[in-house]
Amino acid sequence: MNTIGFTLVYVGFALLLSLFLMSEEVDNGLNKIFSKPGVDVIAKIGFYSYGIYLWHSVMLIFFYPLVVSIAHIPDITMLRFTIYALMGIISGTVMSIIVEQPFLKIRDKYFPHS
Question: Does this model's pTM top 0.70?
């Protein structure tokens, strides 16, 4: 993998990108992939991404094991990953609203953009 594997990955992605760019239906395909609701969800996650980044590990270390044991969640990898991802996104979003945004308002009040 460390020698020829990475090269094959790069070539594969280059071929996929080339095929995608040669398609005459690029606009229609992009419009289907990036619909308004989908982009809105991704944009919100991006807006709260720093809070999600900070709090996902707290969820994994402290709260995820507690939730799995109390709720008796079966050992299905995709189910457990989905629960962990949702916990990380929700906790990061909530903490961003509670902590980060008020401090950003204070910052903007005392140190406005010029």
Answer: no
